[in-house]
Amino acid sequence: MSVKATVFFKISASLVIAGIGALMIVSDASAQATSSNMKGLQLSNDKPIQIESDKLEIKDPESKAIFTGNVKVVQGTTTLQAGSMTVFYKTGGGTISSGSADIDRIEVSNRVLLDSGTQQATADTGSFNLTKQTLVLKGEKVVLSEGKNVFVGCQLNVQMDTGEAQLEACGGRVQIQLDPQSRKKN
């Protein structure tokens, strides 16, 4: 018998692309009557975005840009790192090289790290769908943490417009470690 362990919690997320990409995850998490408030990994749309990679290949006829090798996206205090990042943009919505592309989705792979300075998320792969307003992080071990509060599963699904999220265990068990010192004082 297979048991699918899943933890539901509230996460508020938005993905804003100004040139290439921006991400915000803010969560208010709860599990088995224990709760933890987590501030977000965030990039805002009012700050410049800096992107570095070993290689950039722009394929305008295919409406995509492929960044490979040590990809690093920085906006404000938030950093996204991955081995590769492919940005898919809508046909007729501008171009990546002009900075006016209408982004459809972004896929990242090869050791994904999102870091806001206060919150970190790690995964093997990630997909940000701007059309459907979804964020999916996948891997053998997906870890979302803020300080000593840690959530571990294999897939994190976030509906960015509503903030609803689901952390899946994929055949194992979801693991959560909450620091009692992180609770708000009343």
TrEMBL record:
Keywords: Signal. InterPro entries: LPS_export_LptA (IPR052037), OstA-like_N (IPR005653). Residues 1-31 form the signal peptide. Residues 50-163 form the Organic solvent tolerance-like N-terminal domain. It comes from the Bacteria. The keyword Signal applies. The keyword Signal applies. This is LptA/OstA family protein.
